[in-house]
């Protein structure tokens, strides 16, 4: 599949992206849930980041003798090697625990994969065999920095061409979901993907719109309801004037929504830098998992 020609995925694996953050258990639990719903294999992925050796951070050759310098470089190289070995062992233990947790949750034959390099590059390399990525909202270094998303999350969302489920801190059963709908091509694609996939079949369904009603919006909502009804859903519609981030977040709480479905970054990177992004804002403020579709 071409990286630029996006297609609705109908097969492939569920991939849980893991680190040692407080979101790890939640990522495994939601990945196991998705694996069962999709009847798809589950892969637990851990990426070891390559770090620049500390031996390259400074040159003190003018301050120490040649023999001493070579000894220090050897010791630093060994220290780097020890860190790498510890990281690999830590990753293997993380994957072992994740596989056991996923199996206990009912996922079929969960497997583990450990890679070296960048998370984003790894995901783009593997995505053709993936149906759904599952990742935590914040990574290992950002658990308590609640004003910011994980360092890799936005880059991953922009880079991959598969659906991505961004998990909340703790798992809760998914009984009802909402689609953030605005009538755009991206929102319509979200509706089509929900209709095609078994992931959300049989669950309570809402269409949440931030804005004022218009003839164009009513036509778009009528189309969305017909698509969802034909797929077996019984959608309810909520139209609320106001800022998209605020409306979506408030309605998710009021309706007791367990999962939000929305488009991922519908505007260019340049526009995002100038006026911000609803996707990022909702991810920051929403306390439930968000399924991002392209």
Walkthrough of the structure:
Helix 1 packs across helix 2, helix 5 packs parallel to helix 6 and helix 7 runs parallel beside helix 9. The protein is an alpha/beta fold.
* Helix and strand element order: EHEHEHEHEEHEHEHEHHE
Question: Architecture of the largest domain, CATH level 2?
Answer: 3-Layer(aba) Sandwich
Number of domains as seen in the coordinates = 2
Please name the fourth-level CATH homologous superfamily of the largest domain.
Answer: HUPs
Strand portion: 15-25%
Helix content: 40-55%
**If you consult CATH, what is the topology of the largest domain?**
Rossmann fold
How would a textbook summarize the main sheet? 10 strands, mixed
Please state the average pLDDT score: 83
CATH class of the largest domain: Alpha Beta
**Counted beta strands:** 10
Structural class by sheet pairing and helices:
alpha/beta
Number of helices: 9
Topology, please?
Blueprint: E1 13-18, H1 24-38, E2 42-48, H2 66-104, E3 111-116, H3 119-126, E4 130-136, H4 153-159, E5 164-167, E6 176-180, H5 185-196, E7 204-210, H6 215-230, E8 236-240, H7 244-254, E9 259-263, H8 269-275, H9 278-285, E10 290-293
Parallel strand pairs: 1-2, 1-4, 2-3, 4-5, 6-7, 6-9, 7-8, 9-10
Antiparallel strand pairs: 5-10
């Amino acid at each position: 599949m071409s990286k630029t020609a996006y297609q609705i995925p109908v097969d492939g694996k569920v991939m849980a992206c893991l680190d040692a953050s407080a979101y790890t258990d939640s990522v495994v639990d939601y990945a196991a849930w998705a694996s069962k719903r999709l009847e798809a294999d589950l892969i637990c992925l851990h990426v070891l980041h390559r770090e620049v050796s500390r031996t390259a951070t400074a040159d003190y050759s003018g301050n120490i003798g040649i023999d001493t310098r070579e000894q220090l470089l050897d010791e630093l190289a060994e220290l780097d090697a020890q860190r790498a070995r510890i990281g690999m062992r830590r990753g293997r233990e993380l994957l072992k625990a994740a596989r056991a947790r996923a199996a206990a949750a009912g996922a079929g034959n969960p497997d583990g994969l450990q890679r070296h390099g960048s998370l984003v590059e790894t995901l783009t390399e593997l995505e053709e065999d993936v149906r759904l990525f599952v990742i935590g909202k914040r990574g290992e270094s950002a658990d308590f920095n609640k004003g910011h998303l994980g360092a890799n999350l936005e880059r991953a969302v922009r880079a991959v061409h598969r659906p991505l489920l961004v998990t909340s801190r703790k798992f809760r059963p998914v009984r009802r979901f909402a689609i953030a709908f605005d009538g755009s091509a991206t929102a319509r694609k979200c509706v089509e993907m929900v209709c095609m996939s078994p992931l959300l079949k049989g669950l309570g369904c809402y269409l949440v719109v931030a804005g004022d009603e218009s003839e164009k919006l009513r036509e778009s909502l009528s189309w969305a309801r017909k698509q969802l009804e034909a797929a077996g859903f019984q959608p309810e519609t909520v139209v609320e004037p106001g800022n998209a981030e605020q409306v979506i977040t408030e309605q998710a709480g009021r309706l007791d929504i367990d999962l939000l479905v929305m488009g991922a970054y519908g505007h260019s990177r340049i526009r995002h830098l100038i006026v911000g992004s609803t996707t990022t804002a909702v991810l920051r403020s929403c306390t439930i998992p968000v399924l991002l579709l392209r």
